[in-house]
Design a protein that fits this description.
Largest sheet: 9 strands, antiparallel
CATH topology: Multidrug-efflux Transporter 1 Regulator Bmrr, Chain A
CATH superfamily: Regulatory factor, effector binding domain
Order of helices and strands: EEHEEEEEHEE
Number of domains: 1
Strand content: 35-45%
Radius of gyration: 15 Å
CATH architecture: Alpha-Beta Barrel
Shape: globular
CATH class: Alpha Beta
Helix content: 10-25%
Structural class: alpha+beta
Distance between the termini: 15 Å
Number of strands: 9
Length: 150
């Protein structure tokens, strides 16, 4: 399904990484973002998002990873995280239920759907974490978004 997500304001962590190294950011950065939002008096208003720019599915390709927590409010003091508006984003979207190790299956389906419509991928993908359960990964619910050129 094709959908356009509105722009939103977020606390953002940004780094260069690879799929082979990405595990170091799971949970820890989310915890830090939520802690910073509370310290700043900001209210989280949407699920945590991981934004991949330039990732190609190969384990050693270096790409830009942004982990964003959409919030409402203004910074009350300096922050270690960027505070900025993320642009609107048009993508083909599907819900992935289960362990993140199988996210590639959802990506494969979405990429096939994009190709079938003749649209061009933008090189940016997002994942919205609707439910995170690190103890029972089968219960994870993730919205996968494959960006397209407008």
């Amino acid at each position: 399904m094709k959908k356009t997500m509105p722009s939103l304001t977020a606390l953002v962590f940004s780094t260069q990484t690879s799929l082979a190294e990405i595990g170091r950011y799971v949970v820890t950065v989310a915890h830090d973002l939520y802690q910073e939002a509370a310290r700043q008096g900001l209210m989280p208003v949407a699920p945590l998002q991981w934004i991949y720019t330039g990732a190609d599915g190969k384990p050693d390709t270096v790409f830009t990873l942004e982990i964003a927590l959409p919030v409402m409010g203004k910074l009350s003091k300096p922050s270690v995280f960027d505070f900025r508006k993320l642009p609107s984003f048009t993508a083909f979207v599907a819900t992935h239920s289960g362990p993140w190790e199988h996210l590639y299956e959802t990506y494969d389906r979405l990429i096939d759907e994009v190709k079938a419509t003749g649209q061009q991928m933008s090189g940016v993908c997002r994942e919205q974490y609707l439910l995170i359960d690190t103890e029972l990964p089968a219960q994870n619910i993730t919205e996968v978004q494959v960006g397209i050129v407008q």
